[in-house]
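Possible regression after last week's pipeline update?

I re-ran a chain I had predicted before the update to compare outputs. Posting the input and the new output here so someone can diff against the archived version. Not blocking, just want to make sure nothing changed silently.
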Amino acid sequence: MKIAPLFEVKNRLSEYVKETASGPVVITKNGKPCAALIHLEADEDMESFLLSHNQRFLNLLDQAAAKAQKQGGTPLSEVIDEVNRRSRKRSREKRP
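New output (post-update):
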């Protein structure tokens, strides 16, 4: 991780973007952290990043979790385990 002042990042942005491959670059303004540059690999990273920073989406997830908990829903971890079990079972059945 690198820490750099805003005026320096503005002047050498492309260099700092390249440096994100080895970790985030924290940008400071008047000596205090104010932003960060992070490396995004592919479209999946971009989608995950945007969704994880979208307050409307996060609120929807919280509401769905609360509703499922009230109604005695199945925890996500159990759903994931079941999907993985079924997937492994199908792959074993396909083997000759």
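Follow-up from reviewer: compared with the archived run. The chain has two domains: 2-37, 51-94. Marking as no regression found.
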